[in-house]
Design the sequence.
């Protein structure tokens, strides 16, 4: 039995979907995991930690810290600069937070009193 035009279109669409799945899967497989502050964890001396590292969208940052004295807040550029938590910001409090980077600059602060102002903040740019 011969295939009509509709069948060829379905095969092309199916091939395209499979191809897109493999592209997306390879991006996830290539994602790297970074521990913020390396062995020292998320602390007051983490500000320069991103320097010299190359990040990509999909990479995961692991924030290790004592949740009774710190947290991690994903903020926008204004929140980072002012050390203020904008409304709607995501606050992480587990002490072992895993945050996936998005394309562009990702900003994180600790919003415990005085911590951000004392340098407990990082800006990570992901390609």
Sequence:
């Amino acid at each position: 039995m011969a295939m009509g035009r509709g069948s060829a279109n379905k095969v092309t669409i199916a091939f395209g979907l499979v191809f897109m799945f493999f592209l997306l899967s390879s991006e996830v497989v290539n994602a790297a995991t970074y521990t913020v502050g390396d062995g020292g964890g998320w602390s007051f001396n983490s500000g320069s930690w991103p320097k010299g590292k190359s990040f990509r969208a999909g990479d995961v940052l692991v924030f290790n810290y004592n949740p009774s004295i710190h947290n991690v807040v994903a903020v926008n550029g204004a929140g980072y600069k002012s050390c203020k938590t904008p409304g709607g910001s995501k606050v992480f409090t587990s002490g072992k937070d895993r945050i996936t980077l998005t394309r562009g600059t990702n900003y994180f602060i600790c919003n415990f009193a005085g911590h951000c102002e004392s340098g407990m903040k990082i800006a990570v740019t992901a390609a």
Q: What stands out?
A: The first strand starts at residue 33 and ends at 35. The chain has two helices and seven strands. The chain has a mean pLDDT of 88. Residues 5-29 form the longest helix (25 residues).
